[in-house]
Design brief:
mainly alpha
Length: 147
Amino acid sequence: MKSLFEESTLQEIETRITKLSNTSNPTWGKMDVSQMFYHCQFPLKIALHKDHPQLKPSLLAKLFFKKALYNDKLWKKNLPTHSKLKVVEQKEFDKEKEELLNLVIEFSNQRDKKVWDPHPMFGKFTQDQWGKMQYKHLDHHLQQFNV
C-alpha cells in the first residue's frame, strides 16, 4: 500500500486532485466533487488535530474495520459513511479543493513524526499506518471520480 508520506505518492495525489473540475461526476455515490473534497478533509484534520467531528471510540470499528483502513485490499464502492462524516450541504469547489490540497501537504510534512495521538474512533496507529490510511481514503474517492 502506498503512503502519503512518500514524496512520489504525495505528487500523485496532488496531480489527481488538480485534474478534477467542478463538473467532474462520480461513478458511484451521492457526493458531488466539492462535497467529496470536503469529506476527504475529515481524516486529515483528525490526524492533524484540527477541527473535526467528535467521534466516539468503537470496539466494533476497531475489531472489524481498523485493519481495512491501511491494508492492501481496495474498499468496495458505496461503503456506508459514519453519519458525522457525511456531507449533504453544497460546498464551494475552489475553496474545498485548495483546503484539501493544503491538508494533504501539511499531513505529508509530518512524515518524520514518530508518536501519534490515538484516533478518536479506532485508537492507536503507527506512523506507517497513518500514511497508508490517508492515501487509501484519498485514492478511494479519487477513483470514485475517475482520476
